[in-house]
Every structure is written in C-alpha cells, then in structure tokens.
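hey m, so remember when u said the tokens were messed up on ur end? i reran from scratch. heres the input so u can diff it against urs
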Amino acid sequence: MRRILLSLIGVVIIGGALLGAYLIVKNSNKPKPQVQKIVKTVFTETAQNGSVPIVIPANGNLIAKNRLELYAEVQGIFSSSSHDFKTGQSYRKGETLLRMDASEYYASVQAAKSEFYNLVTSLMPDLRLDYPEAFPTWQNYLNSININKSLPPLPETSSEKVNYFITGRGVTTSYYNIKNLEQRLGKYSISAPFSGVLTEALVTKGTLIRQGQKLGEFIDTSVYELELSIGKNYSDLLSLGEKVALNSIDGNDTFTGTVTRVNSSIDQATQTIKVYVEVKGEGLKEGMYLEAQLEAKEEPNAIKLSRKLLVNESEIFIVRDSILDVLEVEPVYFSSKDMVVKGIPDGTQVVSRPVAGAYAGMLVKVYKEANTTDTTSTKTTE
C-alpha cells in the first residue's frame, strides 16, 4: 500500500513539472506588446534677429508744472476779485485773484509821499544858491512827483558834495522808506502770474485775512509734469528731450510727453531714479494717472521672447529634428512679461510656448497651425 502511494505522488510531481515547462515555452513564444510613447506637440517660431527697442514701462500721476500757493503777506479784509474766488474758477494772466481792503494803509503811504514832496521842495532854495549846476535836475525831479503814482527814481548826480547834501537832509532815507511802503501796499492785491484755474479756495469775500494765512492754490492748466520712477540701470539710457508715449489707465486717451529732467540721486529704498516728463494737451487734469512707455534704446541683433520660456536663468528650448534641445542665450533686458535675448542664430526653431515636463532629448512634434493656443499631446507607436 505504501509503495502504491509513493508511486502516485511521483507521477503527480512529474506531471506538474511537465505542465509547467509547457506553459513556460508557450508564453515565451507570444509577441511582445508594443510600447506607446507620448510625443508632445509644441509651438515654435523661426528666429530672426533684428533691432529690438528697449521699452521701460512706468506710471505716475500728473502734477501741474506751474503752481502758486496763495499766502497773505499782510492783514486785511477780503474785498474783491476779478471773478468768484471759488474752486474751479478760471483766471487769465494779470487778472486779480484777490484784493484786500487797503484804504487805511494807502492813506499812510500818500501822507509819506506828501512829506517827501515837501522835503524836496525845502531843499530847492539851497540847491539854487550852493549847487546851481544840480538845481535844474532836481527841479525836474520835483515836477515829476505825483503822489497818486509810484515815486520816480532819484536823480543821479556826479558831484559828491551834492550827494552829501541830499543824503544829509534825509532825502535818500525818506525815499527808500516810501518805496518800502509802496512794495507792501502792492501785497494787498494778488494777481494771476499766468492763466490757470483755482484748485483750492480757503477764504470768502468779507473774511478777515491774517498775515501768513493760506488763501488757496492756483495752477497752470496748459502744462503738466509726470514723475516716473525707473530702475537705476536704465537712467543712463534716457536723454533730455526724448519723446515718451503716454496713455490713460483705460487706454482710451493717448498723449505724448517730453523728458525734461532726470534726477541724479538714487532712492536708497527702491533703487530707482526719478524721471520728469512734461505733458501738454487737452483733457489733462492734475492727479490724472498715466502709464508711460520709455524707449530707452534699441538693442541690435536681438530677439524678443516671453519670460516664461527662460529656463535655468540663461537657457531656452529649441527644436532640432523633432527633438527638444536647450540653447544658451544672453538675456539683456527683462520686462514684466517679456525679455530681450541675444545669441540665437537666425533660422533656429525656438519653442514659443512653455511645455510641461520638457527636457533635452524629448521627442516632439511641431504644431503647424498658428491660430491654436493650447499645447496638446498625441500618442504614436514606435
């Protein structure tokens, strides 16, 4: 019985071995499955070097180039103005912005002029007797004095004796005291030094104005200045008189400005330099936000590309025989979206849109249609 069981077990083992060998041989003769590789479809541009303008974007707010802050140098009652002294009121050059009541002070000036006239009159007899050569000159001067007008300049004399005589009698001192009073009298009235608009009005008619009080602000609306901040690396590329393209934030209005000043001092915090652009044109308002495109220079033998295409700080992807490769380039300028690079030979197929998972040696297919915007992938059998 025992021998029979051992014989059966041996037969089973041999049969299993034969079956396993058969299955191994059978599976080894099956064809291998074909491996599918993913080939990325990429967008490319044919490189063509040329002169690329370096455009520096900047922005700022308009400020009136000619601005007058109105302050009172004397005290008095606001009596009149050529127009209503209110915000937004326009004045032409020479019109009276504000006049204070100066009747009391005017009377004191007239009294001083009258005293001066009497003083000169009292000298005439002595001049006739002691200095007859100077008498006609001073007689003509006396006749020219009109107390309702500004005092005329004192006569010039070549004789030192006459000068000593005139000065000793107090004529010169009295004359300059009156001229000082006349200057102060003129401060009771403020005239527009240029045509413009009142942007701030802090007093009204009948108000008592005190010395040193701010009265308002007056600006010239014909010319404005735009203050821009640019990187210190580009300040040397700008020149005075250079034209600057400007546009409003909504893009509906465009203007042309001129670089008038470039600051030599660098802001330590931002490492930028202030550039001032003069702007003229209709529709401009103080405080208006404008965007500027400063054409610093033109870079020869260069190409403009998207910043997204740069890898490892100085490389881009190109296509050679349907295979991705990397090319070392020299970036010379970066903007917020684009870059200007050198070192790309003409005719090179440059990848124009980023490719996810790209690497040198990747098999790719160049997309032919220019109006497609998305990078796609396709499967092929090798």
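this time it looks ok to me. The radius of gyration is 45 Å. if urs says something different then somethings off w ur setup not the seq
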